[in-house]
Design a protein that fits this description.
It contains ten helices and seven strands. Strand 4, helix 7 and strand 5 form a beta-alpha-beta unit. The protein starts with a helix and ends with a helix.
Length: 256
């Protein structure tokens, strides 16, 4: 995990863009033109990543699965057999809570899954393994939060996964053993296409229930053309998802 994490952070923005700036500085005397090219690409990439309007454009491109309308929430109980909610990291040792907690993105997913569970009366599976190998699992934190904060019981815990592919692989093992083949999948909107593909590769039928859309009007002043700290983080997540959508079919596609 640490090696994969190191190279991922080094290559994907902002790490890769900062590396371009460093290379440009190093080449400033040896190859001025190449140095200028590296600088323009690095600086331009960082500037684009800082813009809310880039978040909106990228979100629209990646968030291809439509939202599940509230009028459909109760009816999915007749179309599916379970709800699967994917983890999204954890915050370690939060002093305010005195313990590890699901990340705010995970809480957003859990809240949505809870609403769906209450409307549809479907059982819930929480999927998410250890954070860099340290307990508790994301699935266990999710189950505790759903029970305590949203009064929703989680029936199954999938606690081994480290990637979206493993979310699907290990969740499918649990669900198939329980006779479940059709699921409502809850995850972030940009993450949904890749997640759905992974679960369908495991032979499950999926009803997409995305939440946390970024490709919507951002409401920032000046049309979102002013740099913003939050936009850097959001664009980083979207770039990570774009890379995942390209790489996953190459790594995991099953032969027919």
């Amino acid at each position: 995990m640490p090696i994969r994490y190191f190279f991922k952070q080094l290559i994907l923005p902002p790490g890769g863009l900062l590396l371009l700036l460093l290379v440009g500085w190093w080449l400033r005397r040896r190859a001025p033109r190449l140095a200028a090219c590296c600088f323009v690409l690095g600086f331009g990439g960082l500037w684009l990543m800082s813009l809310p309007v880039t978040v909106e454009w990228a979100g629209r491109a990646l968030e291809t699965e439509p939202a599940l309308e509230q009028a459909q929430w109760s009816s999915v109980g007749m179309q599916a057999q379970a709800i699967v909610v994917l983890g999204a990291g954890r915050e370690q040792a939060d002093p305010g809570w005195g313990a590890d907690q699901p990340s705010h993105i995970a809480i957003e997913r859990l809240r949505y899954a809870s609403r769906l569970a209450k409307a549809s009366e479907l059982p819930v599976l929480a999927s998410g393994g250890l954070h860099f190998g340290k307990p508790p699992s994301e699935a266990l934190l999710a189950a505790e939060a759903m029970q305590r904060d949203f009064d929703t019981t989680v029936r199954w815990l999938e606690e081994r996964s480290r990637t979206t592919w493993e979310n699907a692989l290990y969740s499918a093992e649990i669900l198939k053993a329980a006779g479940v083949r059709r699921v409502v999948l809850v995850t972030s909107a940009a993450h949904m296409p890749r997640s759905r593909w992974c679960f369908e590769q495991q032979g499950l039928e999926v009803i997409a229930a995305p939440v946390g859309f970024l490709g919507v009007p951002h409401g920032r002043p000046f049309g979102g053309w002013l740099p913003e700290t939050r936009a850097v983080w959001q664009n980083g997540m979207l770039l990570n998802e774009a890379a995942g959508q390209l790489v996953y079919p190459l790594l995991y596609a099953r032969s027919e």
